[in-house]
Amino acid sequence: MLAGNFYFVGASTATANALKCEVNFASSHAIFRGHFPDVPIVPGVCMMQIVKELFSEHIGLPLQFRKVALMKFLSLINPLEAPTIQVELSWSPVTEKSWQLAASFSNDGVVCFKFKGVAEQGLK
To answer: What is the block-wise mean pLDDT of the chain (124 residues), using blocks of 10 residues?
Structure first.
């Protein structure tokens, strides 16, 4: 889990099928020393993990991604320049244990990351 050490969730609002929240990065985290030392950026795999953790925490179930229909990294997220980003998740059920999930990360209105896929109940 990256929550609580790589990132922290700030203000959030939720509805029956959507979640909006602020994510604050720990710019001193060891990941940023290796990715990259002089110009740290949030790794794409960490963005995917954040989506998974936020949705899993919200619905109270362990999840895994079953299908990825869209994954676009549109601009870099440097935690020194943008320590806080806005994350939006929306979903609809596919089955009792799977959901069509969409996510986006943005910084001051600029979309940095987009995802669409299917998440299903999985192992922890």
So the answer is: 96 96 95 85 96 96 95 96 96 96 96 97 77
Rounded distance between C-alpha atoms, residue 96 and residue 113, angstroms: 28
Instruction: Parse the chain into domains and list their residue ranges.
Output: 7-121
Structure tokens at 69: 């229909």
Cis ω for the linkage preceding 8 (within 30 of 0): no
pTM for the predicted model, two decimal places: 0.94
Please state which architecture CATH assigns to domain 7-121.
Roll (3.10)
Q: Give me the sheet containing 63-73, strands edge to edge.
A: 7-15, 18-25, 84-95, 98-107, 110-121, 63-73
